[in-house]
Amino acid sequence: MTRAEEFEQLRPLLFSIAYRILGSVSEAEDAVQETWLRLEAAPAPPRSTRAYLSAVVTRVSIDVLRSARVRREEYVGPWFPEPLLTDPYQDPERSAELADSLSMAALLLLERLSPLERAVFVLREVFGFGFPEIASAVGRSEAACRQLAVRARRHMDAGRPRFEADRKEREELAERFFDAFREGDVDGLRELLAGDVRMVGDGGGKAPQWAKDIVGAENVARLLAAIVSPLVKIGIAVEPQQVNGQPGAIIRDRDGKVVNTLALDILDGRIQTIRSVINPDKLRHVGPVADAWAVMREANQSRRPQIDRTR
Predict the structure, then answer these.
(1) Which of 14, 36, 143, 297 would you call most buried, defined as having the most Cβ atoms within 10 angstroms of its Cβ?
(2) What distances in angstroms separate CA 126 from CA 144, 149, 157, 237, 256, one per listed residue?
(3) Residues of 186-207 as b/e, b for ≥16 C-beta within 10 angstroms?
(4) Which family does it belong to (predicted)?
């Protein structure tokens, strides 16, 4: 097998490692490409291609994350990971860990860790790497890596998100939610929301977004019902879709361009959190992106009574 063939075989794993460390599809893809360049430039084939590439993509991702931290501190409004529709890496033996680590809530929790803690946690807890491999990847001793893993696990366990275990139940609830949303059914929405539900948006200052979190079932239900009617009038479509392994949707304009994504956290038969990503820079990998400002203007225009100019 050639180097290129081995690399392509391992690409899904490398992307999945990088995405969980970085929370960015575009940065993860860049990290994987840099990893290929380093493999291509290596004078001799590595003893274990998987171990070598996993170590390289981890080190590249740590470096990128350190510089990204500064940009995220200056980010306008809440920062969310770039939505991921499909995880390219599948491992039946670690399917639970892979799914849990992909959610928006888990990735936001990972943001609280240092870059080294985050990398060690991802390699150990999500992908099941041994400490000798992890030590080689992050350039620390095995003992230091074990300490990093303990600290990271403690932080993650303290705030670890819990979700409805039954995937079918989650999907059925999400289907009812999006049906009620399309219809602007306040009562139907309210009964599906937790009493203290939060609706949070990431516009990054580059798209229209509510000024602060919307909290409470009544407030969220009424806001959703109020915004959907003018959106439906101008041809907006709600496309149910798994977003970061959780029930969600892609909102598209009449031309099929992406306006935003929604991801739902579901627990105890109720929606706990609704996260919207509308920053166009975070949606380009999903498909052609709509001009959200233009969509909002058209939706607002549709609210106004039309004047009969034939009289």
Answers:
(1) 14
(2) 19, 12, 14, 35, 35
(3) bebbbebbbeebbbbbbbbebb
(4) Belongs to the sigma-70 factor family. ECF subfamily.
What pLDDT shows up at residue 6?
Answer: 94
What pLDDT score was predicted for residue 69?
85
Q: State residue 257's pLDDT score.
A: 98
Residue 174 CB neighbours (<10 A): 23
What DSSP character marks residue 289? B
Residue 42's CATH number: 1.20.140.160
Structural domain total, the chain: 2
pLDDT the model gives residue 302: 85
Domain boundary among 128, 159, 190: 159
Under DSSP, the state recorded for 125 is I
Residue 164: per-residue pLDDT: 63
Q: Phi and psi dihedrals of 18, rounded to 5?
A: -65, -40
**Domain end (from 137, 159, 181):** 159
> Are 78 and 196 part of one and the same domain?
no
Residue 303, pLDDT score: 77
Could you tell me the two tokens for 236?
């907006």
Q: What residue ranges of the chain have pLDDT lower than 70?
A: 161, 163-165, 305-311
pTM: 0.93
Q: Are 211 and 201 a contacting pair, CB within 8 Å?
A: no
